[in-house]
């Protein structure tokens, strides 16, 4: 895999009608298969009663490097008329860590396989245009658990490193850290050194 990858810059949306059917395309950047599926369910809940066509391309760490997991579904549309055209837009634009969903409310007129394929592809394409495309570096996520006395030190290091993290203050303090892959080892070393090895770090 390349040092950087192309993905959408933010959440994007597009709406249009074709012969009475209403199509709303959505795309979002995601970091995992679970996040992609959660986004699909969000759209499904928002567009109750619509036909929901999902597709995603997500990097997965196989232990020996990254593999690209692709998924698409035709839902209740004719085979090949919906999910594949949606996924093809992501493939053609070389987008990764991205999920696309097109919601369709049927307008009473059958569009045929060709018409459906064009509409579902358009839904993704226009949503990508709305979101914009950016390049990002591959990232990894790990957890850091410390006692309260060390939590300020850990938070300070994470903030100075300008990485994304979530903190959970329970009996101990847990940080979920997302960082570019090539910075993981160095950051873990800094955290262990600053806490004299007391930080419990797990992938």
Automatic annotation (TrEMBL):
GO cellular component terms attached to this protein's record: cytoplasm
GO biological process, one term: regulation of translational initiation
Domain Impact N-terminal: 19-128
Domain UPF0029: 145-198
InterPro entries, alphabetized: EFG_III/V, Impact, Impact_N, Impact_N_sf, Ribosomal_Su5_D2-typ_SF, UPF0029_Impact_C
Family, as annotated: Belongs to the IMPACT family.
Name this protein carries in UniProt: YigZ family protein
Lineage: Archaea, Methanobacteriati, Methanobacteriota, Stenosarchaea group, Halobacteria
